[in-house]
Amino acid sequence: MNTTIMLFLVQDGITNGAIYALLGLALVLVFAVTRVILIPQGEFVTYGALTYASLAAGQMPGTAKLALALGIGAFAFDLFVARRALHARLVVRSFITNIVLPSIVLALTLYFAAQKPPVPVCIALSLVIVAMIGLYLYRIAFQPLAHTSVLVLLIASVGVHLALQGLGLLFFGAEGQRGPAVLSGAFTAGALRFTGQSITVYAITIAFIVALWLFFGLTLYGKALRATAVNRLGARLAGIRTTLSGQIAFLLASVIGALSGIMIVPITTLYYDSGFLIGLKGFVAAIIGGLVSYPLTAAAALVVGIVEAFSSFYASNYKEVIVFMLLIPVLLLRSLAAPAVEEEKD
Amino acid sequence: MSALLSVTDAHVAYGKVEAVRSVSLEVGTNEIVTIVGANGAGKTTLLSAIMGILPLKGRVTFAGQDLARLDIEDRVAMGLGLVPEHRELFVTMNVEDNLELGAFRIERSRARSSIERIYALFPRLKERRKQLAGTLSGGEQQMLAMGRALMGEPKLLMLDEPSLGLAPIIVADIFRIVTELRASGVSVLLVEQNAQAALKIADQAYVMELGEFVLSGKASDIAANERVAASYLGFQHEGTSVL
To answer: Do B91 and B186 fall into the same domain?
Structure first.
């Protein structure tokens, strides 16, 4: 192997690793705040990517309708829970976020889909659609179970994943799609060739990580999210609603997922079920980070990306096997470091 | 005038075991009320149930409103605060962030001025404002837990064993601050094993045994009661002293 190939593989690995890092961070965030292991993260990726690709191709994505359907479900849940004390303010607020908002977005999508909108419009619409899906899913599938065990939440999570994957097949068909590059063009630096798309991936990943860091470090809502992750009861006693923290976490996770999808789909053809494997690699990184450490997760994601790039060069048939085998030494080390199986306290 | 907090015929159960039975109590405005009793009498359970952490059978009203359908967070927003026995701080966040989050439901501009008030009340916290809550000493953590609850501008602050495991000099400090709170218009419901100290500062007192109130009245009368003196104030029975 010569250095050119090596550099090329490393570059490829970092591009993928950057996306795994974002997904891993979202997984850690959602788990810390809600204790949900977010298996459907991969579907957020696919939905974001394929909604974007469909829009760019001038097709109407079914996800916009799904968002409205889920919104109606979420509104019904809100009404049911508050049935004994219906305040006009609460009903109006729920109606606006769960019905009016997705209706407007659906109308915009219908309008724009017919006329092959420019890339920024496609991105904005895809992000908003997937963000709403994430938010309503939390309301429908996870908020009613918020007090149950991690295992119950995991089962719900698997259920949501399967449902979304099936719907994905319905919306986008079995054919793969590609989307237009966010930034076209390329330049070379020495032996390396940088495409506009890979630069976009680096820039967005770094910008998002910095933004998350600022959000958690400086804003009241970011701190409230951290507080919920550190001590749920303490947060409630401070007046921070666990449901609000859960909503913010799911909103962030779905936006991160969709954004990752939009960044990948110009590079790789994505199918309705591709997201699962991509999400799983983010999950590998999150596990290496112990589902708690953000920096460790980001670093591990880069390693996952680079290992994947090299193994696809040397043993492409075993690419996935090698990546997932990374977990074995990590889990072994972790079990040696903390041999006792922790019982869940709540 | 009606009481700020009124609990009528409250029962709290862990599964089939009733930890609190048929308890009624009242806390008025600008009043310190204490519940004294031995370990395991059900004092912590009662406070948790009033806060909404545990389900309670019976009637609880606060500031004239029935609390039955309200979540913990709603009760906090109404002005009911709890400093739990285990403090439940955000240990990986610094002192200032902990305090700031205490005012999550309060207007931003007001929160900024109340943080200065908390620092005036607990100067030690101001010195340690950038330190992580988990690295504070036990006394400082208790102060922070009280400070965080006060940031929410409670009308009634419920304190669960604030003196537990703390050095006597810090305990004195905390009890002094409790009386200052009353002067500033905050009512306090104080649960304590340290009966002598609690009865000294309280207006009203309840004595709890095995999930029930066995005595209630003015704190000074309770302190003078022979049976209470025998059981909780450490006189006569040398071996069972709680002081």
So the answer is: no
Within 13 A of A262's CA, how many CA atoms are on the CB side?
28
> For chain B, what is the domain count?
2
The answer to whether residue B148 is domain-embedded is: yes
The closest alpha carbon to A298, from A54, A6, A47, A22, belongs to A22
Alpha-carbon gap: B181 to the closest alpha carbon of chain A (Å)? 19
Domain carrying residue B94: 87-153
Nearest CA in chain A to B81: A237
C-alpha to C-alpha distances, A311 to A4, A23, A67, nearest whole angstrom: 16, 21, 38
Chain B: residue nearest A234 by CA? Answer: B88
- B75 and B168 in one domain? yes
For chains A and B, what is the number of CB pairs under 8 angstroms?
Answer: 65
| CA–CA gap between residue B68 and residue B56 (Å, rounded) | 8
B111 and B211 in a single domain? The answer is no
Q: What is the ipTM of this complex?
A: 0.91
What letter would DSSP give residue A139?
I
A284-327 pLDDT, tens digit per residue, is 999 988 888 888 899 999 999 999 999 999 988 888 899 999 88
CA–CA separation, B74 and B80 (whole Å): 9
**B121 and B57 assigned to the same domain:** no
Closest Cβ–Cβ partner in B77, B100, B149 for A223: B100
- List, for residues A103-141, the tens digit of each pLDDT value: 999 999 999 998 889 999 999 999 999 999 999 999 999
Going from N- to C-terminal start, the domains of chain A cover: 3-337
pTM of the entire structure? 0.87
